[in-house]
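Problem 3 from the worked examples.
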Amino acid sequence: MASTTISPQTDWRQEWFEFEDATYLNLAGQSPLPRVSVRAVQAALEAKKFPHHKTDATYFEVPNRIRENIAKLIGGKAEEIALTSGASAGVAAVAHALTWKAGDEVITARGEFPLQYTAWMPMEEREGVKVAIVAPRERFISADDLLAAMTPRTRLVSVSMVRYDDGSLLDAPRVAEACHKQGALLLLDVSQCCGAMPMDVKQLGADFLVCAGYKWLLGPFGTGFFWINSEHLSRVRPGPFYWMAVKGADNFSALNFDDPRPAPNAKRWDAPEWASYFNFNLAAMDASVELVSRMGPERVAAHNSRLIDFMYEHLPKDRCIPASPLDAAKRGPYGCFSARGREKTTELYQRLRKENVIVSLREGNIRVSPHLYNAERDIDRLIRVITP
């Protein structure tokens, strides 16, 4: 996937405000808002003070630009992108858009991010589907595990592309191929990799992507997107949709009250009251996604891979154990480790927090997720804190 060529001398750290009191290694938890995004919010606030300066077209300029930039990031089309409040909204859209039969099976994995359970468990009672939860046969969930669990009743596999708890990367194209061979669909949560790893939906083969915007897309909370392969747009069930997603709604002076039809694209799943320049979260997301495109996900992936490899090389081996794949090709843009015991891991995490080394504690693992504002000195500091 092509990206804007930037001089290798660019100091990307300048895109963020200085962390004067902390070593921040928690991008997978939430991104600090870049300077350009803060300025975009400030400009949107000023515009809201005097809305008469903006024309009706303003409502569509920013969301349309975000769709275009996200489409470039994932190798899709702008009309396949809905702007949502997060990954959960996209999964809910799929759950209610598909036509289900009693006994249809949804496969997810044990230890998945909770949205997989909160979305699919209610569908057992609502639609009579069966949710199958797959446990890994080895340390990390794999394509083999998911393929072995599939049955003739499998309708959908719904999993993360990169796991939040251990950073392992799924062989998504292999799962997609197996799904399509038997008429099943694949939904991928790409919240923990979109923006930090090169991605092409044509190569992934997924039918749906969902993504939170406040992690690797560098946006604020309450942002995200839902991607649907355009082949499915004409096949999904209708449902309630946002009034600005009505076909022809860009003409405010002639709204359709008698027979409103959804726009013939993914816009129908936009979060209500969302797609407007005057939505301050959207203004920030616009600037953030554009910055992600300028930096290039491949640059972030290579940078983070070097830092995580450096961390694993210098972890005190008598006290700490890698909890992510050591092979960078099999993990996402971050790495996890643990101490020799859950209680000791919690103690290490608390020590790091006390020293303002900001990481996450997830399912018994310490998750270290850097970005371009980090350098080896930040990993050195982490190592010094956990080494007695």
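Problem 4, a separate protein:
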Amino acid sequence: MNRSLLGIWRTLLPIPQAIWQRQVKRGSIAARKSLSFMSADHHRVRDFVVLELPRRGEPLSPLLIANNLSLPLEKVASILDELEAHLTFLFRNESGDVTWAYPVTAEPTTHKVLFSSGEQIYAA
């Protein structure tokens, strides 16, 4: 379906295709710009924590991340600092361990996710 509707109270109004396509294009350009600081190692760290949080069900230490990705601990710490500073994808607890990496979290929430592999985790 190639249409979009805007809900206003009890009414759904069609949005012209040219308008919503322009907004989607602007959004994708903004997303690319906001992620332009990320190197291949930034993506590796982010991907690892998103996959590993459900497997372990507990916060992930920088040392665990560094060991699993064969990266220096200092580099992982710097990458985690940058990801958190850019409000991108993750949050660490007071110990410096990653507690959530969007969309999953080791912290209890009202949303629980069950994967087909049997892993369970909370959703952010």
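Solution to problem 4. The two ends are 29 Å apart (CA to CA). The chain has a mean pLDDT of 88.
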